[in-house]
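Deliverable D4.2, example record:
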Amino acid sequence: MVTYANQKWREITGIDETLDDSAGENFLSAVHPDDRDEVSRKWQGALKNTEIIMFEARWGTPESFRWAMGEVVPEVIGDEVTNRMGVIDC
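Output generated by the structure prediction step:
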């Protein structure tokens, strides 16, 4: 679930600032259709382990996509993953 997205990411993806459109895996709608399966697979893998996951994909709206690097980093306290932070470098 996306809990924060900066202004630039919202502009590129068209996801509004309330983030209602990005809850759950709806953020995948901002990924180019040809890249969605791979990003989804990487995202699901990140949810199942404590490894840092990196990927490259096209992000945007149906009118305009741009390549960006992504990274999902788990927040680990003790032996427990308490959160994950995803970063998209647009």
